Amino acid sequence: MNNRALKFHDLNIIRAPGFTPPGFTIDNLHPQINIIYGANAAGKTTAARAFSYLIWPEYAPEKIYIQGKFDLEGIDWFAELDTGKTIYQKNGNQSPRPSFPSVEHRDRYYLALHDLLQQETTGEPLAKIISRELAGGYQVSKAIKELGFKDKAFRKGKKSRQANKKIKEYQQALRKQKELVTEEKQLQQLYKELQDVKEAQKNMELVKQALKYSQANKNYKEIKTEFERFPEQMSRIEGNEEQKLREIKRDIEKYYNKKKTAKSKFKKAAKVVKDINLTDKGVQESVLTEIKNKKEKLKSKEETKKN
Question: Whole-model pTM?
Answer without folding.
Answer: 0.40
